Input
Amino acid sequence: MQRIVVLNPKGGSGKTTIAINLASHFSLQGQRTVLIDHDPQASAARWLRMRQPGQPAIHLIAAFERDARVTRTFQLRVPDGTERVIVDTPAAIQAHDMPELTRTADKILVPVLPSDFDIHACSRCIQNLLLVAKVRRDDHRLGIIANRVRRNTLIYHSLSRFLGTLAIPIVATLRDSQAYVRAAAQGLGLAEMKPYQVADDLAQWQPLLEWLQLPGRHSDRSDGAGSFGGDLTPQFRLA
Output
């Protein structure tokens, strides 16, 4: 079973869009897929409830809900036979909550938008993942997604330069496309749309899907190898 956590404390970075499209892709491949929605806005849960009976099944765990009748562990249990678990985390997550969300993650995806505010937020997020959550670069679990990108813009080039300083792989660069909006409104993922409508967008997902297949490893060591490795506070500004 592979657990994929989509995380960025900055709201509006596209976490839910990435999470639901991953869940759609894996379920379409015939894999038993679980979508865990931690976000109180429940966007992933609403998307899942829009799906029709004939679509590939995705099991929902509404982690944002609390049920006093059962233990938290029981509420978050994953059904036997699950092959992929996609975790959509909430916005404004605190650094001290990151270890619990990422400890059992096989892959951690951090989406970042091409804006000055988002670049700064990404810097803090990566710092907390490395220093607080003790995610090590050499575990090959952590990847960045440049999201809603419009190439040949000044801020995109600023984002590219900043991401190049992190020594963490950019596993996908996704363009700003209305295809995501149209798909979500129908309870679909891109992979379930008509191919001619989303061919360019799907091609941008291939590097991400290939990276998710690469082996990673967990490590509880705290010998400094996972340190932040210098001052990564972004120095780039909008021109």
Observations:
- The helical segments are 15-28, 43-49, 72-75, 98-102, 116-131, 154-163, 179-185, 195-213.
- The longest helix spans residues 195-213.
- The chain has one domain: 2-210.
